[in-house]
């Protein structure tokens, strides 16, 4: 089937499953689409992400559009097959339609149309990155190091609003050290579970800072596990509380740890350690890579060159210019948060449709997003 629209391409991509760590089939589909749309360079890196480039080869990459190709697990009772990729009543149906194959399809098609319509002066890239649903920024980091784009657009769903920032995410481990003993003689041990109960009260009462645009920071416990686990007939040696901390611009590991440690010690707790969750992940290529769950918040200046260019692109597409911020985390934590590359977001669909039963995306929004992306490329 010839690719004659962004929606047509989105249908093709939605029909191909691809969970984190198992994206080969969808990566192959992206490569094929980029070949059909005459991208001048197409690369698959060692993590499995696909990068397509248009424009003169002797220039730097001025602009990179990023979208992830892995999708959330299918669960629950759907009223249609999750990978049907059918269009009904102006909606493209299927897992990944909103999050975020509608966005990546709009970027691939829009960039290709811009290159076809006008000779570009700078290179423009589209990255179809892997593993975002598991750990944001892991795959994009490699892409940014290799191509060093001057600007980045994150194509996550935004209902076509221009997203100027997002909260970050820090996964904190609080390990409380006790003293092991037989459960029949608990008095000779030190039970870290009791220490954890005191720590949980500290966590509950701690009030993170707030931001006028991004709202309040969040600190919430998500898991607690003992060492050993399960601790049968034994007072465990350790208890570890996992916490999800949604961060704001200007916050970092050092300031967050210092505040948390101060409150824990004030409550009488002493024998504990704070660390960041760090896990190893395996790509579908077989490559293994470790990454801390330390994803910074970011916020772009509304008067930046990229922001002004995006506003012009939106208005040229006949759309109302709306700005907002994401409450969730995206690959923008890597591009702006860690690499300090000017980053902005815009994509078709609502974030409320992500990860749910009967996921869908508006066909109209896919086409408008593609036109906006095309306008942005032609303005650079």
In short:
The protein has two domains: 6-167 and 297-379, Aminopeptidase (3-Layer(aba) Sandwich); 169-282, Alpha-Beta Plaits. The chain has nine helices and 23 strands.
Describe the model.
This protein is of the alpha+beta class. The protein folds into two domains: 6-167 and 297-379, Zn peptidases (Aminopeptidase), CATH 3.40.630.10; 169-282, Alpha-Beta Plaits (2-Layer Sandwich), CATH 3.30.70.360. 31% of the residues lie in helices and 28% in strands. It has helices spanning 6-14, 24-36, 97-117, 138-147, 192-205, 253-266, 305-316, 332-338, 363-379; strands spanning 41-44, 50-54, 61-68, 87-88, 91-93, 123-129, 151-154, 162-166, 168-177, 181-182, 210-211, 215-216, 218-227, 234-235, 238-247, 272-276, 278-282, 288-292, 294-295, 298-299, 323-326, 343-345, 360-362. The strands form seven sheets. It has a six-stranded mixed β-sheet with strand order 1-2-6-3-7-22, with helices on both faces. Strands 9, 13, 15, 16 and 19 form a five-stranded antiparallel β-sheet that branches. Strand 17 (278-282) and strand 18 form a beta hairpin. Helix 1 (6-14) packs across helix 3 and helix 3 (97-117) crosses helix 9. The longest helix is centred in the first third of the chain and has 21 residues, at 97-117. The chain is elongated and about 80 Å long. The protein starts with 5 loop residues before the first helix and ends with a helix.
CATH architecture descriptor text of the largest domain? 3-Layer(aba) Sandwich
- How many DSSP E strands? 23
Shape: elongated
Q: Which spans of ≥5 residues are poorly predicted at pLDDT below 50? A: none
Give the biggest beta sheet. Answer: 6 strands, mixed
- Rg, rounded, reads 23 Å
Helix content range of the residues, please? 25-40%
The total of helices stands at 9
Q: Output mean pLDDT.
A: 96
**What structural class is derived from the secondary structure elements?**
alpha+beta
Beta percentage is 25-35%
CATH C-level label of the largest domain: Alpha Beta
CATH superfamily of the largest domain: Zn peptidases
What's the CATH topology label of the largest domain?
Aminopeptidase
Give the neighbour order of strands across the main sheet.
Answer: 1-2-6-3-7-22
Rounded to the nearest angstrom, the distance between the terminal CA atoms is 32 Å
Counted up, domains total: 2
